[in-house]
Amino acid sequence: MVFKPRFYFLAGFLFCVGLLSAALYFQFSGGLEPCPLCISQRIMVFAVALVMLVAVLHNPKRTGVRIYALVGFVMAVLGGSVSARHIWLQHLPPEEVPACGPGLEYMLRYFPLTETLKAMLSGTGDCARVDWKLLGLSMPAWVLISFFVLALLSLSQLWNRSETRGDRKYFSAKGELPFR
């Protein structure tokens, strides 16, 4: 069964809300402090969620669905690249791991914004530490899988043939106009 694009965008938005809720749960209840790359991944999940929410609220016609699908896909791919970098850092040999830097709050307060953003996107030694695993995969690996799912969900809307708000059948099966 093919659902309308609005349903898929809503599902993607709720999936992102679940991811962000889980991240906050692990931070505040589980005591896992996020590293700069974790914060960057959260920002990218939020960006995907925002695209999906705007698509749900806007309920666009076919062209708008394609635009939202492409923007959501690009945001998910960018987020996935941050997750992939995080996984790469976690698998480096100990002697190649970058030095641990100051906390993100300290960097935001005392470092120039460009240096803070560079640390957030490239990671520090804190990012190489694995504090949590499920089924042998670290949290960034699960986030990468989630970004992959969100990218596929967005991309699938390019080929979704269900009727959108602006699509109507102008002729009946007999070729008559519906308003006669």
Description of the molecule:
By secondary structure, the chain is mainly alpha-helical. It has one domain: Bromodomain-like. The protein is built from six helices and two strands, in the order αααααββα. The protein has helices spanning 5-28, 36-58, 62-90, 104-110, 113-122, 139-156; strands at 133-134, 137-138. The protein has a two-stranded antiparallel ribbon with strand order 1-2. Strand 1 (133-134) and strand 2 (137-138) form a beta hairpin. The two termini are 32 Å apart.
Give a brief description.
This protein has 180 residues and is an all-alpha fold. It has one domain (5-156): Bromodomain-like. It has six helices and two strands, in the order αααααββα.
Strand and helix map with partners:
Blueprint: H1 5-28, H2 36-58, H3 62-90, H4 104-110, H5 113-122, E1 133-134, E2 137-138, H6 139-156
Antiparallel strand pairs: 1-2
Helix pairs in contact: 1-2, 1-6, 2-3, 2-5, 2-6, 3-6
Q: Give the low-confidence spans.
A: 165-172
The total count of strands amounts to 2
Provide the CATH top-level class.
Answer: Mainly Alpha
User: Main beta sheet, described?
Assistant: 2 strands, antiparallel
What's the architecture in CATH terms? Up-down Bundle
Instruction: Return the structural class.
Output: mainly alpha
Radius of gyration: 21 Å
Q: Output the number of helix runs.
A: 6
Give the averaged pLDDT, no decimals. 79
Range of helix content: 55-70%
Number of domains: 1
**Would you identify the CATH H-level superfamily?**
DsbB-like
